[in-house]
Amino acid sequence: MTILLGCIADDFTGATDLAGMLVKAGMRTVQLIGVPQEPAVADVDDGIDAVVVALKSRTAPVGEAVAESLDALRWLQQAGARQYYFKYCSTFDSTPRGNIGPVAEALLDALGSRFTIACPAFPANGRTIYKGHLFVGDLLLSDSGMRDHPVTPMSDANLVRVLQAQAKGRVGLVDHADVQKGGGAIRSRFQALESEGYRFAVVDALSDADLLNIGAACAGLPLVTAGSGLALGLPQAFRRAGLLAESGAADALPPTGGLRAVISGSCSIATQGQVARMRETHPAFRVDPFELACGGDVVGAALDWAASRMDKGPVLVYATAAPEEVKAVQAQLGAAQAGSLIETALAEIARGLLELGVGQLIVAGGETSGAVVKALGITGLRIGPEIDPGVPWTVAISKSSNGRPVALALKSGNFGTRDFFIKAWRFLQPSD
Questions:
Q1: Helix H segments across 294-428?
Q2: For labelling, which of 50, 86, 95, 174 has a CA lying 20 to 30 Å from the CA of 215?
Q3: d(Cα 139, Cα 120) in Å, to the nearest integer?
């Protein structure tokens, strides 16, 4: 088995985001849930150009995140990948100690490489970098809703400074003046920084054209680290090298059927709007963390509620809340306990929904998605058509307990239009 691009993503929705971008650019892609135990997976060897290994390492202890990422790298090396991609969020969210810097340096060391880039830009979703500063729309990252993130608040928009606080190697900058000159100028800047002893270069990007230029410049790097936006540029580099053919069916999925449901655990501003929009027209059940903490059978109540409503259309089960509500819950229960209670409950609800006949499921939130796919025993996903930038439909490689293929959309909390939960279903091909 030989693949062109081996990717390691630090959360589940981020992995799906990246895989969807690769498919959009014409690479046939499979996403694996966790590091596979086998040397190879039959489904991966079926004309696949890229493999994305989805970890749940973004908020894990640094040592654990590094170890899991290195395990993923070793598996991808056995699969014969030509180039490697460490994917993190387009808002670069992490803790002061990591995990972006430590994981990136460990991967560089394992590959025997001295230099790589950091570029979380995703212009289609309003994430741009200028003079090393990350913007969310028109706001600096530190002025955006990410400043109130309950787990990884981001109070500094200067990516050079943020990464330097996590990394041992020096961090430099490739600014937009060089990026807009094209791949050759960017590559020359890479070489200059490496010769000066820099190990990382934060790279400015304001548009998809910039990402294409950066992708061209990265053709010779063993490792790139980025958000999913750079996935627009790397496939073109493989194509120019004659390694990737044009493909018009990279996003083809088998037809799926069954009932429909949405599970939302994200508390991001975007997801709050999506939950509010769906509640206007569809049945919705709120998961109360205080009731969970008191031992109430919230899971049973949610499934009983859903069972009598799903035959009329999609239903929503959510724990999404505004920042002030999240802070109040965390103050009484503790952030870790509150998060664990909600994730566990939503994962159990997802498993119950499939047993009730759900065959098409949307999950909002990276941590929630990770918990759900593990609870469902899903080991891999084939990547299909894009719903919104960074969010594709997928179909599980293994069938559910009822023998039906399961369609999943794993949505990062920050992604998608306000009507995402409403419009997503029309992108699926129905079964007969």
A1: 298-307, 323-333, 335-355, 366-375, 420-423
A2: 95
A3: 16
Distance (Å, rounded) from C-alpha 367 to C-alpha 413? 9
Task: Name the token pair of 230.
Answer: 């750079």
User: Could you tell me which of 96, 105, 20 has the C-alpha nearest to residue 54?
Assistant: 20
pLDDT digits (tens, 9 = 90+) for 213-271: 999 999 999 999 999 999 989 998 999 989 988 766 788 888 888 999 999 999 999 99
Question: Given the structure tokens 């309950």, which residue do they identify?
Answer: 150
Contact 205, 225 (CB under 8 A): no
Sheet holding 139-140, edge to edge: 127-130, 133-136, 139-140
**What DSSP state is assigned to residue 132?**
T
Q: Backbone dihedral region of 49: left (phi > 0), alpha (psi from -120 to 50 degrees) or beta?
A: alpha
Please report the domains of the chain, with CATH numbers, ordered by start residue.
Answer: 5-240 (3.40.50.10840), 259-427 (3.40.980.20)
Cα–Cα distance for residue pair 171/199, rounded to 1 Å: 6
For residue 42, the model assigns a pLDDT of 47
Provide the 10 A C-beta neighbour count for residue 234.
30
Rounded average pLDDT over 406-410: 93
Asked if residues 363 and 408 have their Cβ atoms less than 8 Å apart, the reply is: yes
DSSP code, position 56: -
Average pLDDT (325-350) is 92
Which residue matches tokens 């949505």? 411
Query: Could you give the C-alpha distances from 152 to 50, 96, 340, 407, in angstroms and in order?
Result: 29, 9, 16, 30
| Tokens encoding 288 | 């109360």
Q: Report the DSSP beta bridge partners of residue 259.
A: 358
Taking every pair of C-alpha atoms in the chain, what is the biggest distance, in angstroms? Answer: 66
Residue 255 pLDDT: 86
